[in-house]
Amino acid sequence: MTSLRLGVLKGDGIGPEIVPAAIAVAEAALRKASTSVEWVPLPVGLAAIRDHGSALPPATVSALEGLDGWVMGPHDSAAYPAEHRAVLNPSGFLRKHFDLYANIRPARTFRNVPARVTHADLVIVRENTEGFYADRNTFEGTGEFMPTADVAITMGVFSRPRIERIAREAFTLARTRRRHVTIVHKANVLRATAFFRDICREVAAGIPDVTVDDAHVDAMAAHLVRRPGDFDVIVTENMFGDILSDLAGELTGSLGLAASINASNRVAMAQAAHGSAPDIAGRGIANPSAMMLSVAWLLDWAAERHGDARLRDAGARMAMAVERTLGLEIFTADLGGHVTTAAFTRAVIAQIFPE
Ligand code: ATP
Predict the structure, then answer these.
(1) Among 12, 186, 232, 308, which one carries the catalytic annotation?
(2) How far is the CA of 188 from the centre of ligand 1 (A)?
(3) Boundaries of CATH 3.40.718.10 in the chain?
(4) Which 3 state secondary structure label does DSSP give 69?
(5) pTM higher than 0.85, yes or no?
């Protein structure tokens, strides 16, 4: 039996609908795989502001320190009272505090789900702690400032150890897939990204069973539209990764299908790539697929870390059950269907435990 302990942070908007749905499916998959996880509910977001005076109470952060990872619902920080908006939002804080350096975002097409491209099954591995994101690349303050009212200056940071670890993450992942990595940069004009590419290539040299190529980010945007099926793992710096993963997500289907995890060497946070969708919150119609697939990915990540075959089995069963449910055209409203979050969740569980 695994002794995995995972936090459950429901978040705002549709979070309290999709997070419990994902946990219910995880529970079924874990049971089927003859294993279990201890789930630890923790307050975050608007409910935490109401009950504890902070969107991310210190008690939540210290509880997370003792866990193996957590499931994070979306947060609607734009709706927080002004004093709570002034501080780093909960997932930004957690990414920084726990050094969640790898933002792993799969993008794939599903049978029978309408998409803009016919086939894709790729994963974007995005460096999450520096690069062209000025808000997170300084020890104090941000790398963005305005020397006059008419000039804004922003700074990018690229450092060898951080590039090496994200490259290792990408190559290790590729070994579990189709063994190909594409490094994305803009080496012709941004020398720092040539540095990124070159260090990734150094890491690649030590992993000869994975093939590697590289592409300029602008060309990559075109390649993703034209031939997304040719890519397996894509590794890139922070902002390029953010933009390309939205593009890849949009090409392969709805936002409601876009999963992600944020991982350090020690812990990982499962988080759907979409936001809190306040426009549909509370109506029971949100698509929980992205959240379910994120939790499946988290179980798989933990399985890899702990060498736990049952956990891996549970993660695979979860992902397969979502895929089969979508394949049956059981769709929530965002995919053009009429099925509620609860009915979709029941259908996914039925794929794990058929009648
Ligand atoms: P954020 O800035 O937090 O990303 P946003 O409003 O830009 O917020 P989302 O909250 O992701 O982005 O919502 C964008 C649109 O996609 C909304 O119309 C929302 O209802 C829809 N949407 C997002 N996630 C889902 C989901 N899981 N199921 C159904 N619709 C969704």
Answers:
(1) 186
(2) 35
(3) 1-99+280-355, 116-251
(4) strand
(5) yes
